[in-house]
Design brief:
Blueprint: H1 2-30, H2 41-56, H3 59-72, H4 75-87, H5 91-100, H6 106-119, H7 125-134, H8 140-149, H9 155-158, H10 170-177, H11 183-193, H12 198-210, H13 214-222, H14 230-236, H15 239-249, H16 256-265, H17 271-276, H18 284-295, E1 300-306, H19 316-325, E2 338-344, H20 348-358, E3 368-369, E4 372-373, H21 376-384, H22 393-404, H23 416-431, E5 443-444, E6 447-448
Antiparallel strand pairs: 1-2, 3-4, 5-6
Amino acid sequence: MVATYREFLIDLYREHLEEASFLVEQRRHLLTDDELPWVQLAEFEDRLEAHLDALVVGGELALEACRAAAADGDPGQLFAAVTVFCRLERAPLLAHVLKVVDLTDADRTAALSEALRYELPVAWRDHCSRAIEQGDDRLVPILAEAMAYRRLRIETSLLPRLSTAPRTALPSLLWCLGRTPAAASVSAVRELIQSDDPATAEAAVRAGLRLRDQPTFHTLTAARGDHHDPIALGLAGGPQMVRALLEALNSSEPTPDVLTGLALLGDLSAVRPLADCLSIEALAGSAAEALRVITGAPLVEDAIILDEISEEEMLPHELAVYRETGERPRRADGQAFGTNVGRVSRDPAVWQDWLNKNASRFIRGRRYRFGECCSPRVLLDCLQSEVFPKSYRPWVAEELLIRYDIDLSFEADMFVIEQRRVLDAARARIEATSGAFESGQWYFGGHLIS
């Protein structure tokens, strides 16, 4: 009977791990689904929390199931197991995972990193710092990201590793330094801006902007031609950078990042050029979203996102028609196979009509965000909004720091309950700055720029 009951409990804990794994993967997918408002992720997170809590209170048998899942389970189960080890502060169990995990498996590495970012105990800070200083090069980015995500100071242990870290790890380590405000971090970032590796140089610029470093700002705004990082220009640039990105928009192959940069700058001179991009299929989605970010126009449309159907899935007569005419198979009612979605309108005529009718609402020379002159309060409203484009929320949090010197210690992939706590706590602080900044003007590090 004892053995049977023990097996029953272990099976129960395995079921909790399987359900947790499903919800972890579902949440990861929904984080980038613009159709689902960010606050609605709480439903999935609450369900995930119930399974994790059951494992935390399950005692040694639950830990036995977690140890097995960490070794042989899928990435979602590894996430759940590491979460349990962290919450119970079972350092030897986590140390074993770090020792044996296959770091060549991208999915398992991502699951391990994600769990540590959310759950790494503050009490383990010193142990992790020593591991960063002396440990496996492959583990350094994972531990450093976890500590930086939780805003634990790591520059003393991290900076010496920059000279020995593999080049592929440097962008990640620079992301960490951007969340570690120290003079030594600034110096290291400035050096790496000159890297001949584009990914490293770009990450160094973005880290320097987060540190509100004036030389980094001047390096960015002095760049010309192919050296522009559109996102960085959008986060920190002044009015002259609008012209630089509009030139890039008129180039032979503009990228979606250029449109994002223009949206972040929020200058009205970009609105008509962005509307022109609605007619370019490859840019239509990015252009519509950029226009929404600047103007706040509530223009939505119904659309069908076509399912991917391979030739192997087609019936013989469907395949013959497809190869002859290019026409995809349809359902019995004649409709294409796909998912109906609501999205920001991509119809140029609809946008032109709205812009013509609403032009008087906007003032030339001002920066706009979601239809209002940009300010810290407006940016906070965007972060809390359920209709503001979710893909822009990470950049909005960056702006608060880079332009207005307001650090919320916020990441857009935090669990909803934690995001709400951070944003609600920021409201009074940001309202207190209302007299310090002129709405719609250009700032860097809390100071006006021209």
